[in-house]
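Researcher: Please translate sequence to structure tokens.
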Amino acid sequence: MTKYSFLDDYSEGCHPNILHALADTNLIQQTAYGHDEYTAKAKQLIKREIASEQSDVYLVVGGTLANIIVMSSCLRPHEAVISADTGHIVVRETGAIEATGHKIINVVNQQGKITVGDLEQVLVDHSHVPHMVKPKLVYLSNATELGTLYSKQELTAISEFCRENGLYLFLDGARLATALTAEKNNLTLKDIAKLTDLFSMGATKNGALIGEAIVINNNSLAEDFTFHVKQRGGMLSKGRLLGIQFVELFKDNLYFELAEHANKMAKKLSEGLLAHGLKLEADTETNQIFAVLPDELIARLQEKFDFYVWCRKTADSSVVRLVTGWATPEEKVDEFLTLL
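Model: Translation complete:
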């Protein structure tokens, strides 16, 4: 690429430790379909990290696939998902959830998040039984699509509401690593395992070639889950490819160290934008920066850097998204701010 990219946090391949591990184990024979020693070790490490031996762990290729498998396995045909209108399943997955036959009930987001009040209103609005879909699963993402965070207080309140009202709670953790290492974060993996029925842990955006872990904390939802993984095309014959990567990320502290770097680079970039008198569309809490820039300035910056123009703001300005990652060199952030 001739221009440095702030488009996303997966433009690079993978962390060198993973590449070396894949090469070093390349000719060692293993049992197929995720029954290899590396996948077993990865699951053990994840369970240790969340302090929940009773949870079930499944490794799949990507985030959209994880969402499809989770929701199609949890829901009966007449049941629906509740999501913020900015949720990834709403705006970035090509109707994948709807294609499984399940309606998504959108609620207006508040900085990318939904609240207990939103959930209460959904239940009221869908009380004309049996003429309306039945809300059954609450979909959250942490970090959200706007890079914002759920606090422990917010997640606890939503979790308690879900349990009181017979709703499943699923947290999409495609960018969970940056959420957990953010300065404002007060949640731990242990908290998330206790407060959710299911959640995912993204590796694709945090140093892996590919890979998301699905963690099931509600044992009633784990029954026959492996059939759903297979039926949706999520069971790799060479499951070792996923297992090796998660072992490298979790055997030490690499998973969190990489995310801390991404957040550090985002903070520097965000503070630089503010120092130039520019405004942010949302608070920068993780590694996604949403800034409002004049269109003329955007055109100049795009001569040397790639980033998304997210949406129109005014007649002559737009919201742009800049994303830093585990491999973002600090000198590239400096170059961007110098050009700015």
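Researcher: Any highlights?
Model: The mean pLDDT is 97.
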